[in-house]
Amino acid sequence: MDRKFARPLGQKLSVRIRSVAGMTDTEIRPFRIDIPQADLDDLRERLARTRWPDELPGVGTAYGMPLDVVKEFVEYWRTGYDWRPHEARINQYPQFTTTIDGANVHFLHVRSPEPDALPLIVTHGWPGSVVEFLDMIGPLTDPRAPFPGMPSPAPPATPAGTAPGWPGPGPS
User: Fold this and answer.
1) 34 vs 87: CA distance, rounded Å
2) Is residue 105 helix, strand or coil?
3) 3-state helix, strand, coil in the chain (%, to 5)
4) Does the global pTM surpass 0.70?
5) CA–CA distance, 125 with 55 (Å, rounded to integer)
6) Can you name the residues that pair with 29 across neighbouring β-strands?
7) Model confidence over 98-118: pLDDT tens digits?
8) From the CA atom positions of the chain, what is the Rg in Å?
């Protein structure tokens, strides 16, 4: 069954088979997460139909998460989790895909308003996603913008860490 959980802007997902020589392309494609409501509804219905196993008595967490904890997570995903705000949060950033070594690579490309900003690549491991970095995109791309918990504007950096008089690892 072909699940279309995310698609390039204005295009349907398609599977392309490439030869070994063509495992990398130079095309960078605009991307937006766009999960159809029917897929979210289907997920909720399938979660509701989960056939739960029996739990071995007295094993605790020796064989993984206790069944009652898993059931609680599933119930939250089925009835309490609202995907749309998370989808919108990710989609507020420019996203793209390309193919590297035969793998589809999804990335965000957020530019700084600072003309001399140093480009920075932030990567994640497996399992992980760009969601891990959403809270730091603003402070990294726009260091002059206010950031909760940080004096505004950000203190000038010194070789020892932070500027004198500012909290942090440097001299104060």
Assistant:
1) 8
2) strand
3) 30, 15, 60
4) no
5) 32
6) 97
7) 998 888 999 999 999 998 888
8) 22
